[in-house]
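In this supplementary section we document a worked example of the pipeline. Step one takes a protein sequence of length 302 as its only input; no multiple sequence alignment statistics are reported here. Step two produces a three-dimensional model, which step three serialises into structure tokens for compact storage. The input and output of this example are shown verbatim.
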Amino acid sequence: MNEPLTCTAAQSAPRLDRWMATQWPQFSRARWQKALVAGLVTLNGAVARASDPVAAGDVVAALPPPASEPPVHAVAENIPLEIIHEDDDLLCLNKPPGLVVHPATGHWQGTLVNAILHHCANISDGGHPLRPGIVHRLDKDTSGCILVAKNDAAHAALARQFAERTAQKTYLAVVRGRPRATGGVVTGAIARHPVHRQRMAISRRPEARAAETTWKVLSSEGNLSLVECRPKTGRTHQIRVHLKHLGHPIAGDRVYGGGADFPRQLLHAWKISVDHPTSGERLDFTAPLPDDFPLRPAGTGS
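The serialised model returned by step three reads:
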């Protein structure tokens, strides 16, 4: 894949697609619009839309738009799903490691979205034809709980809970070393790495976004520890960046210094709690730890 193009906005513009066509005129505005639909463009680290305004100091990162046409809609594929819970409004799934959540460059097929479309006759489009039902995301190699909205009302209700931070997520990570403290809080703001554009980093730059993660050690063995993490915010790569900042990167995380002796980063979305979008009942879901985790919480076999 080509290296991302990166530009710090020097002036404001009412629409991102127009601004990009002036910054990178080797590609037409129509090509950039297709890249935006395909999820190839981020604005300050978040997936961008063509209509987003651009202000001085904003950071736009983009992969060059593909010459071939991306699909207009995701298609159904018969891919097995591990269902934790299902009702008329939502699904909670246990995503396996290695499965991409939604179609994007390099992964137009074989994603969680393709599997969801096969399982559900009707699904919320979520405002994006390639991300139907998707309320939040997990990295490709992160396993565990992920919620899917089955209709537009449920999508809006769940998205609001994530935006207002009333949805609670708990992750487990196997990290390198044994932290000196038994727990704590990391509050480092996060922005795109200034040199390695596919990484995030704790930063004091104006575009950095506030991020907070509470953590505690559950068990240790040898040079590995099992850490529970509860992110208050939901920044890109937040837990991976914050644990690296503590000096204990996630085992197997090649991007953030966790080594290559495990086939993937050992990060698992263990639990998630939300209010049901229709009844208001508080729902608590748990995804069993995957077999590749070498540690378990102390005193449990789960």
